[in-house]
Amino acid sequence: MIEVKEVSKCFGALRVLKSMSFTVARGEVVCLIGPSGSGKSTMLRCVNGLERHDSGTISIDGMTVDTTSKTIGSVRAEVGMVFQRFNLFPHMTALGNIIEGPVQVRRRPKAAAKEEAMALLHKVGLADKADSYPSQLSGGQQQRIAIARALAMKPRAMLFDEPTSALDPETVGDVLVVMEDLAREGMTMLVVTHEMGFAAEVANRVLFLDRGEILEEGPPSELLRRPQNERTRDFLQRVL
Ligand code: ADP
Ligand code: MG
């Protein structure tokens, strides 16, 4: 579903991604872990074309991600993204946020979009918050709305960039449950996270990224319990 081949990216003289390659199969959940500044967010942003990679190729379900192409908008619409900071539109209700993409981008009739949005609100456990504005919701609730908003576009894959890092501890669990449900339903997911419990339970594979390179990858039972690389061991000792 997601194929990253020898992707490199510099910011000025700084080489942030060094010929990175990995794939995420349909229905697979891959967690990307690694120290701050290792290039995790940049990688995710390149995958959905928010950032342009310098060389190598990225494709989503066979469609090439090329930010200079006219088709980048339609490729981007196939990939849902949830950020660390819930960036809901503050002047729109939860429901308004969720129907915006389907109505504006997918040209869904409003009534149908609303019906689908209500189903998504049920799914994320917030059916009673349809008319609430983001400022009236907790961080965890906003993040679940952000997930519902991404799902409303019926994406082929979902990218998460530390979706629970900015949340109060007591709201983290509700968000992780929604993500687990999504994984169980077969959504293809690429997740940057420091939640090692989530990685251990839900990921099919974990990639350890350091200084723009994947140093180690494997099933969580291997990588998290018996890391082979010294830097992976160091990192895990610090976060676990
Ligand atoms: P991570 O998400 O793993 O913490 P990032 O991908 O955010 O890492 O950043 C990787 C490196 O790239 C960092 O050194 C960061 O400062 C740098 N960087 C990220 N975005 C930009 C940008 N837009 N311009 C310049 N440098 C950037
Ligand atoms: Mg980051």
Automatic annotation (TrEMBL):
Entry superkingdom: Bacteria
Membrane topology value: Peripheral membrane protein
Domain called ABC transporter: residue spans: 2-236
Gene Ontology MF annotations: ABC-type amino acid transporter activity; ATP binding; ATP hydrolysis activity
Segments traversing the membrane: none
Keyword Cell division recorded: no
InterPro entries from the UniProt entry: AAA+_ATPase, ABC_ATPase_HisP-typ, ABC_transporter-like_ATP-bd, ABC_transporter-like_CS, MetN_ABC_transporter-like, P-loop_NTPase
Annotated Gene Ontology cellular component terms: plasma membrane
Cell compartment(s), UniProt: Cell membrane
Protein's recorded name: Polar amino acid transport system ATP-binding protein
Organism name: Aquamicrobium lusatiense
Lineage: Bacteria, Pseudomonadati, Pseudomonadota, Alphaproteobacteria, Hyphomicrobiales
